[in-house]
Amino acid sequence: MWLPLWPLASDDLLQGIYRTSRHNALELRYIEANPQSLSNLLVIDIDHPDALMRAMWNRKAWQPNAIVENPANGHAHAVWALAEPVTRTEYARRKPLAYAAAVTEGLRRSVDGDKGYSGLMTKNPTHEQWEASWLTDHLYNLNELTEHLTVADFMPPDSWQRTKRKNPVGLGRNCTLFETVRWDVYRVARTIRKRNEHPTPEDQHDLEAAIASLCQGMNATFSEALPATEIAATIRSFYKWITTRYTGWLDSRTTSKKNPPPTTATPADKAVSLVAVRVASPAESLAAVTNSRECRLRFKRQGLDDNDG
Q1: What is the pTM of this model?
Q2: If residue 281 lies in a helix (H) or strand (E), which one and from where to where?
Q3: Helix (H, G, I), strand (E, B) or coil at 124
Q4: What is the reported pLDDT for 127?
């Protein structure tokens, strides 16, 4: 059920979180819920003194697999395990990702869970400080949970997925990144392709650097930035999609005069301009979202949210 092999872990979220071995992580109070780039556990933070009752009430057919409670205040994390993990970084799989985000929102609504919880760190159910209730070993699929949430009137409407949120968290950040950046990625790909009848190594290099710039720029706007590994995987996914499946890149007719370059500057155009001045290496491109700054951005709020519950 718990997949990470080298997870983030901590005894005190305010003091920071660190990667360690799976064996050592299980000795600490907080552990990373899901492995990098995949989600098979949907975790809801319930900051109410009756969290255990909320997570179990009137849901016999879709109870969480586990509820990990803080006996000091009754707050808890409720965990639903999926039969098939959802990838968070594959552009070609962005629809299942959005679906999983909607189901997670439905589960949150069903217990009035914390809207700001990112789902990154969860209470270690094997730690002596928490009281863990193991309710079922059944692995859920998203359609199954959707049916129960719909009947109970907790599933968000389709319009919820199309709503742009000021401060997306959890899976919502990955969805926002894909849905916002992809239009600029398409535009920048067409702009670069106009330079030559067929893609050149320089075109490919510039495309990858521009995609990196766009993804990093969006990630910097999140209150809790996505980890560098997820951004790197997302950049690779975008690049693979554009260079293997996007007709605007593959079709030599992209260079036709019927497709004149845009007359107004867009984020994509600016990305191309930056590339023309200086193209960063992949290592340089990812440096802005690594190490201490990343941890501070991602986990400061997480620590404040979880440390009291």
Answers
A1: 0.69
A2: none
A3: coil
A4: 96
